[in-house]
Each structure stands twice: as structure tokens, then as C-alpha cells.
DNA sequence: CATGAATGAGTATTCATTCAT
DNA sequence: GATGAATGAATACTCATTCAT
């Protein structure tokens, strides 16, 4: 699906691309997706031309940022789940995903608004993440730690929703904790 | 409380103002707050000048939209709560708020951001809504239907979060129902 | 040339017209000719509609203001000249015209920029003023107080120029006086 | 004195900048400062974006125009004064300044307003010009060619005023000459 | 490959003037 | 006649994207 491997970049080009991604992630996160591309380029120490050579579109850059975040999150989720029994793994990963996605809703929203078929472009990494979540959920349900009637779509929706909720409680850790308690309590069977 | 009564508008002016608000609500909701003002004016069948006569700023228009939605919601919440015992009233209103705010980022954002730096008129209606929610919550807690350690900020965050979650399940009513079940279950004491 | 006498206005209409002229003079002078017409109407306590009924165009209002100022100036010049011998009369009127026109250049400039044929619309009152100046100049020259080779056009240009010059010395009366001394000295024969 | 040298522009960029300045000078002078920026850009054969890249604001463009004119005038004044004895130098430069500023309200306005609140770059070139004028005046006074009680402010005011006067006599060279005669005669001591 | 200058469609807002009330 | 709501052309400025250097 991802076709032929893209020709290996020259060392400096690769460095620029990486730097651009890092900077864009930082800038989009702290200042919103409306920052002019020029500013991102400047912050990365390159010209706009270079930015557009690597990412043909602002939207493409945003997408790349999201994909990379998703991939990292997927990997970290796998690592985190490895050492724990199903119930604990489920809860730990739930928290991880929520914390990571807090404040990043805007990204995907912007992508969707752009008219891109988000599912198509992110599908691959998104599918991997969903597969991992499905595994965690199934294991937790088998272990009797989560209501058996809960499907993957509901889990995803909950993750997004709880992410939004905790965003609004950024400066009250106790309150955030209570949100998790409520949701984890509600997820238990019966 | 809302200061001097603004001079009563001429019939046609009032009609235009109302139409503008209706159209803006619809357009902002379905297409986002980035729609050109010109488009809103056209959709309302008036010139841009008229729009700016009624709302001196695009932001002012957005604020008026949000305020009106908030006021309606507050009133409807009151009406809905009236006929029910605390536990039921709480749950019914929770659902109402969630359904109404689903898909209206601006709306919920405004609701939750109220503590920050919004304009006076928004602040006022937001405070009224929060007061109503505080009442519902307290009553439900007194009735033993909701964990006593849950504060108003958490309730608001949950409403916003569940609104977001439910948005992602727009076409699966059964799944949406399960989200509510999870949250309501989690909200019960212990 | 000014055609039929315009039908006598109703008392309130006449009052409105006068008030509008007064206010416009004040406002144009203090805040420049770019003030919105709406503001002038408000300051005069009438609606814009009324303003445009009396003066079909912003430009027409400005023109009326200028004409009235010219007429007043012409009359005052006559009065001032009456009681003095030619040389003194000339100098006194020179000063009067300069003081009155200081800071009002903008008016006529705006009119000219508007593409109106200023000469046509103001011709009448302008001609009266020029006639009076011509008389003063001729008398002063006959009395040997002013170089005989100076024409009316130069006198007018000097009046305008000195008006501009003293505008720039608004807060230094001694310096203004020196300007007058220089010009009056230069105007003497030889 | 004018801070760090701005990075040398690329050849084409420099050409565009210069062209923009030339065109703006011409257009502002002949049609006033209200011409749309778009028109200036078109006349210079570039897009608006280019105009705004070089001059971040319409006002900045105007300022650049004025500064450049002032600098040229200052240099030309120096050159002109060099070869003449004080009295002649004074008169020749007086004429030069007047001819150059005739019809350029913005220009003289800027010259005279310099004491007020203009931007730094304008202030700088304006100060240089004023210094030169002060030198010319002092020398002429020392040579006994100009009234010793005349200060720099009056000289500047006179330059501006005579510029305005001469503008009104654009098509009558003999009359213009008489204006100069009057003023130069008036400037002589006693 | 990198650069940053050029482009121009797009956007919020103003204001002279018209016209329904 | 008076009012002020409606109109929409006009204007300064932005920003994603292209392309000459």
C-alpha cells in the first residue's frame, strides 16, 4: 500500500526533513495549526522552498506530523503493555493514549476539514494503532476487567473524549485523576 | 443584569438580526468558524454591511451565536429537570447537554473556557449554565446518585468529553448508548 | 448665476441645515475631511438621511462649508478695511485672511481632489473675495505701500502660502510675527 | 548611524524595490496618498504581495518615498551650496528646496512635522536636512545677507509656504519670480 | 538541492449613499 | 420631512504555493 521505497535521501536532506517534522510538531502543538508555513520553515532554519520540497502541501506536513505521532504512540503502547497483566496493561495504555493526545485534537480536525480523506492517508498507521487497541481490549475483556459488550469503536471514542476532557483540567491533577476513576469504574463489567 | 435594554429594533432590522444569528449558527456548526463573513451574509440574504451593522466583528457574531445557544440550553435544562427526581434529572440533563453540544466544538469550548478570558456577555450566560449544572450535581449527590467527590469542573469536562466521544459514534446509536452507560455507571458512588 | 431662489425651508429644516453646517465646519476642521458622514450627522443630532437630504453628497457639504467661510471672510474683510487708510487696510486684511485660512487648506484640496471643478462651484463667492482683494491691492499700490508690479494672482498665492507657513508655527507667536514682517517688508516698493 | 546594513538584496529584488519606490513617488505625488496599494503594485509591474514584502505597510512605503526624496534633496543642496558664496548659496538652495517640494504636500509636510512624532528613519534624514539648512542660514546671516533674527523654524515654515504659493502659480513663471523677489527682499536685514 | 522573492486569490471591515418605515 | 437600516464596492494586508536565482 505504501508502494516502492522512496529513494534514500541525501544526508542533509534527511536531516532537514527530520528537523522540519520536529519543529512542525512543536509549533503546531503550541501555537495551533494556523501558523504560517513560513514561520515553521524559519524555526527549522530552512527556507520555505525546502519545506515545500519535502512536504508538497501544508496539509501534507500536518499529516506527516500526525502519522509520526501515531507511530510513536503505537510503539510505546506495545512496550508499555508488554510487562503487565491484561487489566493493568489496558489501564496503563488508556492513560498513555489519553495523555499523548490531549491538545492534539486540532490536528486531525484540521486534516478532516481540509477535505482530505483522512482515513485513506492515515489509514496504515491508524490501522496499526487500532489493531493494538483491539488486542488490549480483548485481553482485558477475557480477563474480566472490562465489560464484554464494549466494542473497539466505543473504546476509540472514549479515548478521544477523555483526551478532550482532561485537556480542560490541565491544571488540576486531582480532578483529572477523578475523570480516570469514573471512566475505569464505568468500564468494569456489570 | 444585562444592563440597559437596547432600543427596540425596527421590525425588519430585528428580522435580519435573527436571520443572521440562525444562519450563522447553522453555518458555523456545519462548516466551522472559518467561513467567510460574506458567505454568512449571502446565506442570510443580506449584504455584508448589514451583518457588520448588527455584529461589529466576526468574533462578536460568533459570541452572539454561542450565547444564544447557551441560553436556550440553560432554559431547556431547567424545563427538563423540573419534572424529575434528582437522579433522573441529572441523567436526563447530562444527555441533553451532550446531544446539543455534539459537533459544536465552539459551543463546548466556550462552555468550558468560561473561566478564562471570554467576553462579559458570554461569561454571564456561561455562569448561569454552570450554576444550573452545579445545582443538578449537588442534588444528585445528595440523593446518593453520584459520587460525592465529583466537582463542577470535572462534570463540565466530562460533558465536553462525552460530547466529543459521541460525535465519533454519530451513526451507531447502540454504541453511543454504551458510552452513556459507561459514564453513568462510573459516576455512581463507590 | 445662482438661479431661482430655492423654496424657503420649513423652520425646522432650516435649523437642521444650519446646525449641520456649523457642526461640519467644526468637525472637518478639528478632525479632518475624512470623518465619516455618519459622525457629522450624529454630532448634529440628526440622522444621516437628513444630512443627505440637505447636501446630496459629502462633497456638497464640504463645498457649502467652504462657501460659507469665504462669504464670512469677505464680509469681515470689507468691515475691517472700511475704517483704515489703504496701507494699513491692506496689511490688516492680509493678516485676517491668513489667520482665517490657516489649517483649512485641506478643505479646498479635498474638493479639488474630488474632481469637482472647484472654480465652477465656488466661483461666485470666490470671485467676490478676489474682487475685494483686488481693490485692497490697488489702493495700497496707489498709496505707494506695495510694489506696483504685484498682480492679484501673486497676492492670492502669497496669502495661501503664508497661511501654510504660519500653520507650521502655530505655537510660536513671535516666529509667526517674523514671517509677517518678512513678507510685508518684501512687499514694499523697490 | 542607520544601524546594521540590511542584507544585500538579490538583483531582481533590488530592482523591484527601486521600481516600487519610483512608481510610488510618482503616483503619490500626482494622485495623492489615497491611491490603492494595488494600483501602485500594478503600475510597478508586480503583485501586491511583492509590494508588501518590501514595505510591510502602506505607511512604510510612503515613509520610504519621503526619506529618499529628502536624502536626494539634502545631497543636492550640499552640492549646490558648495560652489557659491553664502548669500548666493542661500538663495540658490532656497529656490531648489521650493521647486522640489512644490506639489508634494507629503514631502514638505514631512519636513516640517519632523519635530512631532514621525518614525525614526524619517527623523534621521529630516534632521540632516535641517542641519544643512541651519548651516546655510547661519552663513548667510554672518555674511549680512539675511536678517539676523530669523530662526530655523521660520526658515522651514517659509520654505513650505513659498512652495505652496508657487504651486498656485505653476503656469506663470514671471509671477513665480515675483514671489521669490518679495521673499528675498523681505529676508534682507532691516 | 536550497533559497527566499514573487504571486494573487482571499478576508475582515468601512463608508458614502439609497430607501423602506 | 426625518430616520437609520441596508447596501456593496472598495481597501489594506496575509499566506499557501511556485519558480528564478
Can you characterise this structure?
The structure is a homotetramer of 190-residue chains. With 190 residues, chain A is mainly α. Helices cover 75% and strands 0% of the residues of chain A. The first copy, chain A, contains nine helices and no strands. In chain A, helix 4 (58-82) packs antiparallel against helix 5 (86-101), helix 5 (86-101) runs antiparallel to helix 7 (118-142) and helix 5 (86-101) crosses helix 8 (152-167). The radius of gyration of chain A is 19 Å and the shape is elongated. The mean pLDDT of chain A is 88. Chains A and B meet through helix 6, helix 8 and helix 9 of A and helix 8 and helix 9 of B. Chain B binds a DNA duplex (21 and 21 nucleotides) through residues 9-13, 16, 36-38, 46-50, 52-54, 56-58.
